[in-house]
Amino acid sequence: MFFMEKKKDIRALSKAELRAFFVTHGDKAFRGDQVYEWLWQKGAHSFDDMTNISKQTRAMLNTNFVINHIKVDQMQRSNDGTIKNAIKLHDGLVVESVLIPTETRSTACVSSQVGCSLDCNFCATARLKRMRNLNPDEIYDQVVAIDQQSRYYQNHKLSNIVFMGMGEPLLNYNNVLKAIDKITSDEGLAMSPKRITLSTVGLPKMIKKLADDEVKFNLAVSLHSAIDEVRSKMMPINEKSNLAELLEALQYWYAKTKKRVTFEYVVWKSINDKKKDAEALAAYCKKIPSKVNLIEYNAIDDGEFQQADSKAVDLYVRTLEAHHIPVTIRRSRGKDIDAACGQLANKN
Ligand code: SAH
């Protein structure tokens, strides 16, 4: 019987490993640097793209490795300029990533998992079961693809990255951190970590781990209610780790990083649109240096939940401001093409 040996993903190798590979194959370590640059800076999709590498060496690479590059399978442009991409992975699975342009910046919203396991009952991605984690290079490639779109359509490079696409980034901790390392390193895209925000449902253990690892990027937590019964109803994860545990982890995060956390918060009709809800949020925020981003709700198919009216949102703004807690309202982009927060569900 034959066993075809599976070729290795060349981008799973570090630069040092790649250099060592060439030395053991009778070449110079420097060849590893050249190939590494093709893989991570010049965006090569195949070994044949590597024009300063000899044909013989390219053939040798081809017999040993594959490049599992992502493919932008479908691209939709919204009338507000937002672009949603269906990204095909090497095994045929699909994730979505979005370019959100404004006059002054271009933000990439990237996915960290195929599907999601967390069951937030207002989120379209929760309807898809979690299939697998993305690899570091699959996360990195989304950023590169969106940077290229930004340069082409907006005439400037990508300025910000948010991990607010499909999946829970802290449940794919190592790969997300590896991708961010590459995005911020000089050998990758040399982007500042200050321009990267990781958004999480709020897993206390993992938030503490981020603090211990002294990460330099920003942290956003999807809060949606500062009352346990309400939050548990919307986000089942709150039954496993409640608001008090979350707060303790965030205080730990702040003590170590001195970085203010952002709370993402949707105000829903009849769910969290009362004065007591706004006051609970203000009281919670007072215990941890934070700011609040009020997000517009993007309805998903079944229409079970509705955005609260503007009076309720004003009430939140007034209550938070009275307690000197910074608050902003995030207007949704790309709604007409289902590219807004919580709408990523591989509809096509
Ligand atoms: N798992 C991470 C990141 C993905 S969701 C997290 O939960 O933070 C990105 C943001 O979109 C989160 O704040 C989430 O609560 C919010 N969101 C999900 N569904 C939404 C919807 N239908 N309308 C508006 N925001 C939504």
Please write the string of helix (H) and strand (E) elements: EHHHEEEEEEEHEHEHEHHHEHEHE
Q: Considering the protein shown, what is the CATH homologous superfamily of the largest domain?
A: Aldolase class I
The biggest sheet, with number of strands, parallel, antiparallel or mixed sense and barrel status, is: 10 strands, mixed
Biggest sheet strand line-up: 3-4-5-6-9-10-11-12-13-14
Number of strands: 14
| Rg measurement, Å | 22 Å
CATH-defined topology of the largest domain? TIM Barrel
- What fraction of the residues are assigned to beta strands by DSSP? 15-25%
Fraction of residues in helix: 25-40%
CATH architecture label name of the largest domain: Alpha-Beta Barrel
Outline of this structure?
This protein is an alpha/beta fold and 348 residues long.
Describe the fold and architecture:
- With 348 residues, the chain is of the alpha/beta class.
- The protein has 2 domains: 8-66, DNA polymerase, domain 1; 71-337, Aldolase class I (TIM Barrel).
- It contains 11 helices and 14 strands.
- The protein has helices at residues 15-24, 29-40, 55-64, 136-154, 173-184, 204-212, 228-234, 237-240, 243-257, 275-285, 310-322, and strands spanning 8-9, 65-66, 71-77, 83-88, 94-101, 106-109, 113-114, 132-133, 160-163, 196-200, 218-222, 261-266, 290-295, 327-330.
- The strands form 3 sheets. Strands 3-4-5-6-9-10-11-12-13-14 form a 10-stranded mixed sheet, with helices on one face. Strands 1-2 form a two-stranded parallel ribbon.
- β9 (160-163), α5 and β10 form a beta-alpha-beta unit.
- α6 runs parallel beside α9.
- It is elongated and about 70 Å long.
- The two termini are 41 Å apart.
- The structure holds S-adenosyl-L-homocysteine.
